[in-house]
């Protein structure tokens, strides 16, 4: 199925060729900055636990506060984006995140720090939703998958910045100095978004417009993508959470070497998102590659289970491959959801997409950890392969994978 061009999703003719790419860069910086804020508390745990006497349970609660705030507000940010547009949602959300970072820098106690982390996480969700709409709105279908793949690199970039900067700043000058890093990044992102980002063109909002119809009424296309994406989160977070400890505790690999393997795996995963996005542009489909990734994720988890009995270097190589494959679905599903939902509903739909994935991710750690304790790594990894296999039949067929129905209705109108 060929991807068709339509007026309300493509850049208008008068927009320069570089303008969409400049907005993409700004949205990547914004979401990566939000990821730094969300990830910062996790990298504060060694300081809080070993030097400040905070229990692991309390430190873990602080680390989970931004994610909790994020999950609670994603759909709300999506609805606001549908109503007022992308530019001020990203700029305003980043400004609010910076304000929360100021509160975290000046917090006098851990309850206050936790509250500011919760609020900052809630504010940072603005870029998660609105940045995806910027990509879908300003890039034509034949380049949209590539652009969304680049946009999806923001999470590993943000985690990498946090991993490098937060522990060093915390060790040198304390928690307040560490939280100054996301403060600066989110403040700069707010200014850049206000100056560079422009709301994509969309049809005039009026009652009865075909594009304004609720995409959740009728065929369950979006719901099926949401469910499939939630299942595909299971192998992704299994590998990211337990990969390092599997190599070290089970395989006996040196911690430093294992850390390098995990870093290489994250880099491969980021490139994989770009590559699969470009492939979706080439084949004119988001959902056919998504189905392929689901099958590959199931297969690579079985191979990962078998590699437990192979030489350590083989296990490390398989882990790198598993990381690259299991994260490749995110951009495909995200793009498909935005295209199918249309210009008036994509914000809320993307909010639902992210919410389901974060909720699924929150279950993976304790559930798979308990399974590993019960049956060991090989059987646990093999069992995880059932999740992406179950996602395959949930992925809809290609008749609406690029939003053909919604776009056709808009063209007819």
Distance between the termini: 22 Å
Total domains = 2
Work out the helix count: 16
CATH architecture of the largest domain: Up-down Bundle
Query: What's the CATH C level of the largest domain?
Result: Mainly Alpha
CATH homologous superfamily identity of the largest domain: MFS general substrate transporter like domains
Shape, principal axes of CA atoms: globular
Percentage of β-strand residues = under 5%
Structural features:
Growth Hormone, Chain: A, 16 helices, disordered N terminus
Q: Summed up, what is this model?
A:
The protein is mostly helical.
Q: Could you explain the architecture of this structure?
A:
The protein has 413 residues and is mostly helical. The protein contains 16 helices and no strands. The chain folds into two domains: 19-202, Growth Hormone, Chain: A (Up-down Bundle), CATH 1.20.1250.20; 211-412, MFS general substrate transporter like domains (Growth Hormone, Chain: A), CATH 1.20.1250. It has helices at 19-51, 56-84, 86-106, 110-138, 141-151, 154-173, 175-196, 221-250, 255-283, 287-306, 312-326, 329-341, 346-375, 377-384, 386-391, 404-412. Helix 5 (141-151) packs across helix 12 (329-341) and helix 10 (287-306) packs antiparallel against helix 12 (329-341). It is globular.
């Amino acid at each position: 199925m060929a991807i068709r061009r339509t007026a309300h999703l493509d850049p208008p003719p008068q927009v320069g060729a570089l303008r969409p790419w400049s907005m993409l860069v700004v949205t990547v910086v914004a979401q990566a900055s939000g990821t730094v804020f969300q990830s910062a508390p996790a990298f504060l745990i060694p300081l809080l636990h070993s030097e400040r006497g905070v229990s692991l349970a309390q430190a873990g609660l602080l680390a989970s506060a931004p994610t909790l705030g994020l999950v609670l507000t994603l759909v709300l940010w999506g609805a606001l984006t549908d109503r007022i547009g992308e530019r001020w949602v990203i700029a305003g959300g980043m400004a609010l995140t910076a304000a929360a970072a100021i509160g975290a820098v000046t917090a006098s106690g851990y309850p206050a720090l936790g509250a500011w982390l919760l609020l900052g996480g809630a504010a940072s969700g603005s870029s998660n939703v609105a940045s995806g709409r910027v990509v879908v709105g300003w890039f034509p279908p034949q380049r949209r998958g590539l652009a969304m793949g680049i946009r999806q690199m923001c999470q590993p970039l943000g985690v990498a910045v946090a991993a490098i900067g937060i522990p060093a700043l915390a060790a040198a000058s304390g928690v307040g100095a560490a939280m100054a890093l996301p403060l600066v990044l989110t403040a700069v992102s707010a200014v850049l978004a206000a100056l560079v980002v422009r709301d994509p063109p969309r049809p005039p909002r009026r009652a009865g417009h075909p594009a304004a119809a609720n995409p959740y009424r009728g065929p369950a296309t979006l719901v099926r993508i949401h469910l499939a994406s939630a299942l595909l989160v299971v192998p992704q977070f299994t590998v990211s959470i337990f990969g390092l400890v599997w190599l070290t505790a089970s395989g006996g690999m040196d911690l430093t070497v294992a850390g390098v393997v995990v870093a290489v795996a994250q880099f491969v995963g980021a490139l994989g998102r770009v590559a699969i996005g470009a492939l979706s542009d080439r084949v004119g489909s988001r959902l056919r590659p998504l189905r392929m990734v689901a099958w590959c994720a199931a297969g690579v988890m079985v191979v990962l289970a078998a590699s437990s009995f192979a030489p350590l270097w083989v296990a490390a190589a398989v882990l790198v491959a598993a990381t690259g494959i299991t994260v490749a679905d995110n951009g495909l599903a995200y793009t498909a959801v935005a295209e199918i939902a249309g210009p008036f509903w994509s914000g809320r739909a993307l909010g639902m997409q992210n919410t389901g994935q974060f909720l699924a991710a929150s279950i993976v750690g304790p559930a798979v950890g308990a399974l590993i304790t019960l049956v060991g790594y090989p059987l646990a990894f093999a069992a995880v392969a059932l999740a992406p296999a179950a996602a395959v039949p949930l992925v809809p067929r290609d008749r609406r994978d690029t939003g053909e129905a919604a776009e056709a209705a808009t063209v007819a109108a």
